[in-house]
UniProtKB/TrEMBL annotation:
Upper lineage: Eukaryota, Viridiplantae, Streptophyta, Embryophyta, Tracheophyta
Protein name per Swiss-Prot or TrEMBL: Calcium-transporting ATPase
Subcellular locations according to the entry: Membrane
Species per Swiss-Prot/TrEMBL record: Erythroxylum novogranatense
Record's catalysed reaction(s): Ca(2+)(in) + ATP + H2O = Ca(2+)(out) + ADP + phosphate + H(+)
Xref: Gene3D superfamilies: Calcium-transporting ATPase, cytoplasmic domain N (3.40.1110.10), Calcium-transporting ATPase, cytoplasmic transduction domain A (2.70.150.10), Calcium-transporting ATPase, transmembrane domain (1.20.1110.10), HAD superfamily/HAD-like (3.40.50.1000)
Source organism superkingdom: Eukaryota
GO molecular function: ATP binding; ATP hydrolysis activity; calmodulin binding; metal ion binding; P-type calcium transporter activity
Listed SUPFAM superfamilies: Calcium ATPase, transduction domain A, Calcium ATPase, transmembrane domain M, HAD-like, Metal cation-transporting ATPase, ATP-binding domain N
Family under the similarity heading: Belongs to the cation transport ATPase (P-type) (TC 3.A.3) family. Type IIB subfamily.
Keyword line: ATP-binding, Calcium, Calcium transport, Calmodulin-binding, Ion transport, Magnesium, Membrane, Metal-binding, Nucleotide-binding, Translocase, Transmembrane, Transmembrane helix, Transport
Occurrences of domain P-type ATPase A (ranges): 208-302
Sequence ranges assigned to domain Cation-transporting P-type ATPase N-terminal in this UniProt record: 90-158
Function description: Catalyzes the hydrolysis of ATP coupled with the transport of calcium.
Parts of the chain that traverse the membrane: 148-167, 173-192, 329-347, 376-398, 790-809, 821-839, 930-948, 960-979
């Protein structure tokens, strides 16, 4: 018997049948859970009459179980509506744990077969991704473009008149070519936009693969969110997001921020066993830690939480606007020339081949008039077609796809395309230390007991009380999870690097048995570590005692300020001012070696405080330890590379000022002259207390900010941005989440750790290697340069084609290039040639240039210089051949037109070489990487001229004519070399244009 769906979804409405059913199911659940616990066998639940067994056996798949009260719908409704009444009717959290064949501390115990069966019964923790927009839909959108519609109508009218005058057979190479050209332009546009829309989805980071900590068979494991199943026990800590709906099992001070669910900015919810055990997927853990039972997974949960990042590429937006404006320029030019041609025609100024006027009033028949107008329309269509740079958008798609694929191979995952562009303008990098500059592994290398340094082994001659207190402080004042191993010293610890190092040291040097300590001590209250207070604390009660023990550990100087006594080898002593100063010197000496200093303290109180707050005064210092964290390989080289590229570094850390200064000097963030500069190294409180004017004056000299909180880091980013800096932030976890989100470019380190940090970032460095920052910067600059090369190449082609066709049409009434030839130039040749520019890899020279200001136009004065000189040379040569080619080469009209077409294409082959190096004079450097593409272009052009005569309307050329074309086209490289000696200041085009279209857009 199953609960009715409506009753389940509306449990607050009175229903005698629902109440009876719930009571019946509750009694069955209680009886079966007790029986199962006695026999240590799993209990069954049902979804569509299916049961689960912990021994990997599927039992009775056809029988309708009496436990269908905890099916998928019921469990989803339970948490979604926070229905405490239904939870009580189902027997509470413990009964649901038993019914799901799980365990409060050990989790599920089944193997792969059990996991697969749970997925089959309850579903998978993934969601249906939004359908990718098809290429057909992009084509339908492109064909509706006003320019395309006008061109298509004109082409169809022309085709109709061609059929009437020449018949269908003879019009195939004429009017139909215009229709084909327009349709192909729409196809290229749709393919380009389709590639741009899908390539980011293909290479972007899948949030369903974020790792979470799951307890299975009593051990902690990292698994992807998509691998979480119903019945799993999840470990939650500060910075995590709840991966699925579930129930709270146990933990301390767990608080969630449910802003992503409710939209309330201050929607903080405390979760506990008694009042509110419900956890919603997507809520963010902001305090405490705890364990939860997963009760429901699937589309309705995760699709609203882990959304896909979808956006238009910034360069795509620029190029779309640029393309739109170029279309308008082409259409305007075509309209003006068409109007003038009509005036010339109807005034009798246009002559035919015999020199007679084509139009004579009252003598020229209507058919000839319409045919002449259609011919003029064809010419105008050709002018517009040549100015449509759809190949530019396709080249952009190829460039982005190629770059992102290689960045993925370099362990860099893009979450926001805008970061690929913005990184090119970055001026400052704010970074933390642990897991970023240093390896994510720490080790205790120095230990002090009282004022004596432990040299060989921890002195066992100290009082047993002090030794026991230190063991308890390490074992219980932690949120790490320890997996049991066969070896007594081999521990698998899940936690932050500091916790892992301390537990490993405690096991190896102190001989701590964590399970044994937990047997005789009860944790009353636990305050987890927070970066703003720099310590964690625990209240414990030993068995058969009423007194409460307080244990603290944290930043050494902060813990020391709370202490009035200390332990040495002789026992507990009162701490005088002089002795406190000695301890401060000990802490400073460790910090100057780059060690992170941790102190342990203890206090015994009579009873539990009413507010369960950890004591922060009158404590006894138990000992000091120094943790070493080695720099990552290649950090110094990465910092130096970024500095050569014009970036400055600011280290922002929670460590004390001496440790931060030592590490900054070691990784060369601090130069020798800055090492002694007091204003280059400050503390967070000092930065906060600056007056606004003082802060603006000193911020450019700051290199290290120690003892900082998350708000300090975010405030530093805000101040830098106000000063005009483009800020990149590297970090991980909850501490840097706000700074990552507020930065211009957020770079999170690693795939493990807090989900909030990764979701706040623009890029994720998967290998956790700081040297990847250099790779990101290099690729960002390479992408920017490639886009500039593509634009320079395309604008040169467009400017030349527009001027040649417009002037040629104005002078002779016909365009020098046919529709098929223009189509070959605009689609085929430009696309293939652009491959040579879109697939360039980062160069070493890119890391020697300063950052590009965001306000700088994408088309620089250097590019304008190159575009204008090359276009001018090409236009002069092509128009000379157009008007004097027959006499110069002693050829007929068709051969002359072929020479114009061939010269135009060969110009663009060498135009690729010129565009490869926008600024550098060594244009042939690295040409071997693109020689295959250029060779293919030349071979295709030869085939077009020599073999496809009918299609291209060309005539075969001899060796002399080919040699002339190649020589004249190759001379453009000589001109490009000479022009690069001319200062770009002589071409202040951007300043001249002012607020014109290009400067305004780019």
């Amino acid at each position: 018997m199953h609960l009715d769906r409506k009753d389940v979804m509306k449990p607050r409405q009175p229903s005698c049948w629902r109440v009876f059913t719930a009571i019946f199911f509750t009694r069955v659940l209680v009886a079966m859970s007790k029986k199962g616990l006695r026999k240590q066998k799993s209990l069954s639940h049902s979804l569509s009459s299916v049961s689960i067994d912990v021994h990997d056996e599927i039992v009775d798949t056809n029988h309708t179980s009496s436990t269908s009260g905890v099916d998928q719908i019921t469990l989803a409704c339970l948490v979604k509506e926070k229905n405490s009444g239904l939870l009580s009717q189902l027997g509470g959290v413990e009964q649901i744990v038993a019914a799901l064949n799980s365990h409060i501390t050990k989790g599920i115990s089944g193997g792969n077969k059990d996991l697969e069966h749970r997925r089959e019964v309850f579903g998978v923790n993934t969601y249906q991704k939004r359908a990718v927009k098809t290429c057909i839909s992009f084509f339908l959108q492109a064909i509706k473009d006003k320019t395309i519609v006008i061109l298509l109508v004109c082409a169809m009218i022309s085709f109709g008149f061609d059929i009437k005058q020449y018949g269908l057979k003879h019009s195939c190479y004429g009017g139909i070519s215009n229709i084909f050209a327009v349709v192909l332009i729409a196809v290229v546009s749709s393919v380009s936009k389709f590639r741009l829309s899908t390539q980011f989805r293909k290479h972007s980071y899948d949030t369903s693969q974020i790792n979470v900590q799951v307890i299975r068979d009593g051990k902690c494991h990292w698994v992807a969110i998509s691998d979480v199943v119903v019945g799993d026990v999840i470990l939650l800590k500060i910075g995590d997001r709840v991966p699925a709906n579930g129930l709270f099992l146990h933990g301390y001070s767990l608080k969630l921020d449910e802003y992503s669910l409710s939209g309330d900015q201050n929607h903080e919810v405390a979760v506990n066993c008694s009042d509110n055990p419900f956890l919603h997927a997507g809520a963010e853990v902001i305090d405490g830690f705890g364990f939860m039972l997963v009760t429901s997974v699937g589309e309705k949960i995760t699709s609203s939480t882990f959304r896909e990042m979808e956006e238009e590429a910034p360069f795509q937006e620029y190029i779309n606007k640029l393309t739109s404006q170029i279309k308008k320029i082409g259409a305007g030019a075509a309209a003006i020339i068409f109007t003038l041609a009509l005036v010339y025609y109807f005034t009798g100024s246009t002559k035919d081949a015999s020199g007679k006027p084509e139009f004579i009033r009252s003598k020229t028949n209507l058919g000839n008039i319409l045919q002449s107008i259609v011919n003029l329309i064809n010419a105008a269509v050709n002018i517009v077609e040549v100015t449509i740079p759809e190949g530019l958008l396709l080249a952009l798609a190829l460039n982005l796809t190629y770059s992102m694929k290689l960045m993925t191979n370099d362990h860099i995952m893009i979450r926001k395309l805008s970061a690929c562009e913005t990184i090119n303008s970055a001026t400052t990098i704010c970074t933390d230390i642990t897991g970023t500059l240093t390896m994510n592994q720490m080790k205790v290398t120095e230990v002090w007991l009282g004022k004596e340094k432990v040299v060989d082994d921890f002195p066992r001659e100290i009082t047993s009380q002090a030794f026991q207190l230190l063991q308890e402080g390490v074992a219980l004042n932690t949120t790490s999870f320890v997996n049991k191993q066969n070896s007594a010293l081999d521990l698998e610890i899940f936690g932050c690097p500091t916790e892992k190092a301390l537990l490993s040291w405690a096991k190896a040097d102190l001989g701590v048995n964590i399970d044994a300590v937990k047997q005789y001590c009860e944790v009353v209250h636990l305050e987890v570590f927070k970066s703003d207070k720099k310590w964690s604390g625990v209240l414990i009660r030993k068995n058969h005692e009423k007194a409460i023990q307080t244990h603290l550990k944290g930043a050494a100087e902060i813990i020391l300020s709370m202490c009035s006594n200390y332990y040495d080898s002789n026992g507990e002593k009162e701490m005088s001012r002089e002795e406190k100063s000695e301890f401060e010197l000990i802490i400073r000496s460790m910090a100057t070696k780059g060690l992170r200093c941790i102190a342990f303290a203890h206090k015994k109180v009579a009873e539990v405080p009413n507010d369960q707050q950890v004591e922060e005064a009158g404590l006894t210092l138990l000992g000091l330890v120094g943790l070493e964290n080695q720099l990552q390989p290649g950090v110094r080289e990465a910092v130096e590379s970024c500095k050569k590229a014009g970036l400055k570094f600011i280290m922002i850390t929670g460590d004390n000022i001496h440790t931060a200064r030592a590490i900054a000097f070691e990784c060369k963030i601090l130069d020798p002259e800055e090492f002694i500069d007091s204003e280059a190294v400050i503390e967070g409180v000092q930065f906060r207390n600056y007056l606004p004017e003082e802060r603006n004056e000193k911020i450019d000299r700051i290199r290290v900010m120690a003892r900082s909180s998350p708000s300090d880091k975010s405030f530093m980013v805000q101040c830098l941005k106000e000063r005009g800096h483009v800020v990149a932030v590297t970090g991980k976890g909850m501490i840097g989440a706000f700074a990552l989100k507020n930065a211009d470019i957020g770079l999170s380190m690693g795939t493990q750790g807090a989900d909030v940090g990764k979701e706040s970032s623009d890029m994720i460095i998967l290998d956790n290697n700081f040297a990847s920052v250099v790779t990101i910067l290099r690729w960002g600059r390479c992408l920017y340069e490639n886009i500039q090369k593509l634009i320079q190449f395309q604008l040169t082609v467009i400017a030349t084609a527009l001027l040649v066709t417009s002037i040629g049409f104005s002078a002779s009434g016909q365009t020098p290039l046919t529709t098929v030839q223009l189509l070959w130039l605009n689609i085929i040749m430009e696309t293939l040639a652009a491959l040579a520019l879109a697939t360039n890899k980062p160069s070493k020279e890119a890391m020697t240039k300063p950052p590009v200001p965001p306000s700088q136009p994408l088309i620089s004065d250097i590019m304008w210089r190159n575009i204008l000189t090359q276009s001018l040379y090409q236009v002069i040569v092509l128009l000379t051949i157009e008007f004097r080619g027959c006499s110069i080469f002693s050829v007929g009209e068709k051969a002359k037109n072929t020479l114009v077409f061939n010269m135009f294409i060969l110009f663009q082959v060498f135009n690729v070489l010129n565009a490869r190096m926008v600024e550098q004079k060594r244009m042939f450097k690295g040409i071997e990487k693109n020689k295959l593409v250029l060779l293919v272009v030349v071979i295709l052009q030869v085939a077009m001229v020599e073999l496809l005569n009918k299609v291209a309307n060309t005539e075969k050329l001899n060796w002399t004519q080919w040699s002339a074309c190649m020589s004249i086209a190759a001379f453009s490289c000589v001109i490009a070399y000479l022009v690069k000696w001319i200062p770009p200041t002589l071409f202040p085009i951007n300043k001249f244009l002012g607020q014109s279209i290009f400067h305004y857009i780019l």
